[in-house]
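Here's what a typical entry looks like (EF-hand domain-containing protein):
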Amino acid sequence: MQSGQQQARRKNAQVLDGSDIRELVESKEAFAKFVENKFRHLDADGDGRLSLTELQPAVADIGAAIGLPARGSSAQADHIYSEVLNEFTHGKQDSVSKPEFQHVLSDILLGMAAGLKRDPIMILRMDGEDLNEFVESTAYEAEAVAIFSQIESGNASLRQCLPAALRQLTVDHGMPPASDSLVMEKVIEPALQELPADQLDRPASQEVFFQEFKKYLGVIARRLQERPIIVAHTENTFDGAGIRKILSNKFEFEKLLDSVWVDVPKEHKDRTSKKYLRVALDKLAASVNLPPYGAVDQVDAVVNEAFKMANADDGKAVNEAEFKKLLTEILGAVMLQLDGNAIAVSTNTVLHEPMSTSSTLLSPSPLSPTVSSPSE
């Protein structure tokens, strides 16, 4: 549980909730100036259109802004980059005009804003303060004992136990993700080297572990003070409330079902395969506070069970009424399961680069959209 000081620091953390992006896009004058600056910067030959080559920096920026690895890092990421490019060109054009660029960029930014509103990102500065507070708190002893009981293994040495113990700590303790390469290289390994080698090679009894782990955390806290680590933190609880809310509003729910049905591929006589139920559920996900399928294993398991109960995976063709009925049954089953067993999910990602340099998609920033991007 977080202390009052930790909660206060969380409140003071930078929160990315998409509001700045929405404000920019919804201001016609500001967004037009933003697009003008961005378009002029990309239009290298000044012909008033962006070629596929000239679009590449914008596509790369969008990828960086949504957290994709660099192009060429993975086939999955490359596929998404290609899809972003196709959004601009519709898969056919070899260049796009400024109005086309503005329209697509608006859609992409609003989509990003909606995602951030649903799952805000909290930017935490791990500077050793919270970690020191944990070490000096009354909670340390009990947690250290509990951690030791989880990692203790026969005659394991302190050198083995201490790094393993770190992996049991979270950002709530003031510890950045111990598995991250930057944290390992700049914090964990150098801190371990500061401890006496002969002590590290001794078997780790509970008493020895308790004392040395405290020293180790003190060294790590000092290193974090010298070089703070920035962590992007997200947390969400899937408890079925979003589904319950939309199901209770018959008018809005029917509109949502209609919009999904329109986009579903049809077979002859307005029938479609049940296999598109998963596609439809993904389209509904944001509206009912569910993650996209494949994003959270625990939620996927609940969804899979709901599909099984509704016999929705047999691939048979159904008409519109049957399709909507099945989708409603699936949502209801997911809601009931989550209502009784809510799923809490949090992620912590170390930012290896300063936020301002990871993507120039919103440079100039939403707060000053008329300022031109610095020249390369």
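DSSP finds 18 helices and eight strands in the chain.

More examples are in the samples folder.
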